[in-house]
Amino acid sequence: MARPRGFTLLEVLVAIAVLSLALLAAIRSTSSAIQTTEALRQRIAADWVAANRLADHRARRAWPAVGEREGEVIQAGVRLLWRERVAATPNARFRRVEVTVFAAESSAQPLTTLSGFLVNRPK
């Protein structure tokens, strides 16, 4: 008597289980990649915001008062908060500016911090 050809129910169930495990691993990997990409997008936008704050002071030849300022900006579609600390230096012609940028949803952990110096040039 000839044996029927095809797969048994058990073989089909094992194949489906293996396939579902492979798909689950692919979904987790994709999800992780998406989260990493979003975090990188936020950090790049935060770097731009910090660099723009310093460049703005330099371009305007501003001489900001010592102290702190805060603001909010949308950069590359990302809402970010920035905090700027201006401090005096031993040389009266220089000011140290430190810009820290945070995600709007979580201002506890900074995304980036950038420091620079401004020079008060004689006019």
Explain the overall architecture:
The protein has 123 residues and is an alpha+beta fold. The chain has one domain: Pantoate--beta-alanine Ligase, Chain: A,domain 2. The chain is built from 1 helix and 4 strands; from the N terminus they run αββββ. It has a 4-stranded antiparallel sheet, with helices on one face. The longest helix has 52 residues, at 9-60. It is rod-shaped, with a radius of gyration of 27 Å. The model has no long low-confidence stretch (mean pLDDT 91).
Can you summarize this structure?
This protein is of the alpha+beta class and 123 residues long. The protein has 1 helix and 4 strands.
The run of helices and strands is: HEEEE
Number of strands: 4
Q: What is the radius of gyration computed over CA atoms, rounded to a whole number of angstroms? A: 27 Å
> In this structure, how is the largest beta sheet organized?
4 strands, antiparallel
CATH topology, by name, is Pantoate--beta-alanine Ligase, Chain: A,domain 2
Model regions low in confidence, pLDDT < 50 over at least 5 residues: none
Query: CA-to-CA gap between the ends?
Result: 106 Å
- Percentage beta strand: 35-45%
Shape: rod-shaped
Oligomer: single chain
Q: What's the domain count?
A: 1
Q: Number of DSSP helices? A: 1
Mean pLDDT: 91
Identify the CATH class: Alpha Beta
